[in-house]
Amino acid sequence: MGMCYFFRVLFLVTIVFGGGCASWNPLGRDTQGPMPRPPRPMPVSSAPFAWGISTSSYQYENPDVLPQESHYFTTDWDAFVKGGRAPAKGKALYSWTEFDKDLAALKKIGVSHYRFSLSWARIEPQPGKFNEEAIEGYVAMARKLKEAGIEPVVCLWHFTFPGWLYDPKKPKQSNWLHPEVRRRWLAYLEKVLPRLAPYTNYFAPQNEPNGQITTAYLAGQWPPAMLLAFGTYRKAIDASAGMFRDAALLIKKVKPTAKVLSVEALPCWERSPLDPGGLFYNTMTHGNIDHLDRIWDVCDIVGINYYYSQKASPISFLAERYRRGSNYSMMGWRINPEGLYKEIRRVGDRYGKPMMITENGIATDDDPKRELYMQNHIAAVGRAIQAGYDVRGYFSWSLADNYEWHYGYNAFFGLSHMDPATHSRILKPSALSFRKIIRSIKTVGMVPKLPVETGFIGTQTNKTP
Ligand code: BGC
User: Which atom of ligand 1 lies nearest, measured to the CA of 331?
Assistant: First the structure.
């Protein structure tokens, strides 16, 4: 998810508060504060390396269910779209009714893992009324993946809430802060976890709660669209962390051997002379770890969603939308594999947990650029492993070009695209190149051996900091 709106807002904050407070950030606690650091696990060379792809229900499933259809459901994002705040989902990818098309593509690529998310709104279209067919649909996905030798990674929340938790007129009582949300979340988990458990060894309770909460409560760009609501932001972080912990507990109760994964947005923020007081830098780096600091101890694996690095300054964020060229994605995100290396080190040092790259990818209509992006980021993972960081997997975002929130269908993240007539996924050369990587690299210890023989795109920095 892009943070450009957040930057715009921070620009205002900088103007209002000035840039003179070197250690202050408007989000609260100091990012450099003390953390209990368990000894960092060392990578085990012979352990299998997980190669995966990540997707989400809202971005992949069918066009919206209409009110006259049975099992009608709606989400907070649909309300947002209706209000003209985001592009319509329109055609969609039909992964709900035609999951086999996804499965066929996954088999061709040869991934060992696949992360998909459940739509809470589809499963619980009215508070307390569960759609058994919907639950069965997701169970079937997990089962089919398992039968195909692909390990499902089930994400229990990926950005959208059931519409009944959202009231645009009551932003402080919507979504994470709805008075009933925690009770309903538990009921939802109690319904789905036992059903999925027989086929699922990895559960991710939430996708990027840190990014979503920032964009929703500070940047005003996601429901409930509050601007610079720092107090509400903190409450939402607390609420989501509490719900994450509930989920972790329940997952272990239902299946003690299952692994709990956190999935957070971790762009690499860099200091800038245009942010002399460090306000931007402090705020953004704080946003990276704010949620994670509250839940890392209940995780078996810390997931890193990494796409880009960015100078933390007002000018840099204003420039984002105009950036184009070989070092940028079509969304103006700066390509920097070194940033991934740095984030792995930061997370490894701070939390001392095994890690996985749970999302990495690029929006581009230039597929060779995607191949290079992928190769260079995988090479950065390899370098981190070589430096003693326990990274156990890499998931590409994403399987097919899909609905990219505020960008609609205008940001091409897919290793494939959908044939509009047959709905099959047509693999791009980058998917075949991913397949080659997957076939040749089986274990953690082999990752560093990946040759990066192709030309470099992105910010060239091969030195170890
Ligand atoms: C999210 C996806 C999104 C992707 C690209 C991640 O933040 O999990 O939903 O499509 O980044 O922006």
Answer: 12
pLDDT over 50 at 342, yes or no? yes
pLDDT tens readout for residues 378-391: 999 999 999 999 99
- The domain locations on the chain are 2-30+37-446
Assigned CATH topology for domain 2-30+37-446 = TIM Barrel (3.20.20)
Helix (H, G, I), strand (E, B) or coil at 303: strand
32 or 138, which is more confident? 138
Supply the pLDDT for residue 70. 87
Pairing of strands 425-427, 151-155: unpaired
Of the CA atoms within 13 Å of residue 413, those in its CB half-sphere come to 27
Which candidate, 368, 364, 372, places its Cα nearest to that of 324?
Answer: 364
pLDDT of 177-188, one tens digit each? 999 999 999 999
Q: Are 137 and 96 in contact (CB under 8 A)?
A: yes
With H, G, I as helix, E, B as strand and everything else as coil, classify residue 337: helix
The letter for the amino acid at 348 is G
Q: Which residue among 1, 115, 401 has the greatest number of ligand 1 atoms within 8 angstroms of its CB, and so is best to mutate?
A: 1
Task: Please state the atom number of ligand 1 nearest to the C-alpha of residue 263.
Answer: 8
Looking at every residue in the chain, the average pLDDT score rounds to 91
Is the pLDDT confidence value at 255 over 50?
A: yes
Angle at the Cα of 205 (from 335 to 92), degrees rounded to 5?
A: 65
**Greatest alpha-carbon span in the chain:** 59
CA gap 200, 257 in Å, rounded = 10
pLDDT (0 to 100) of residue 314: 84
* Two tokens, residue 259: 């692994």
Dihedral angle over CA of 451, 269, 220, 218, nearest 10 = 140
Nearest CA to ligand 1 atom 7: 1
Strand, coil or helix: 369: helix
Residue 230 burial (C-beta neighbours within 10 Å; 0-12, 13-18, 19+): middle
Residue 416 and residue 291: Cα distance in Å, rounded? 33
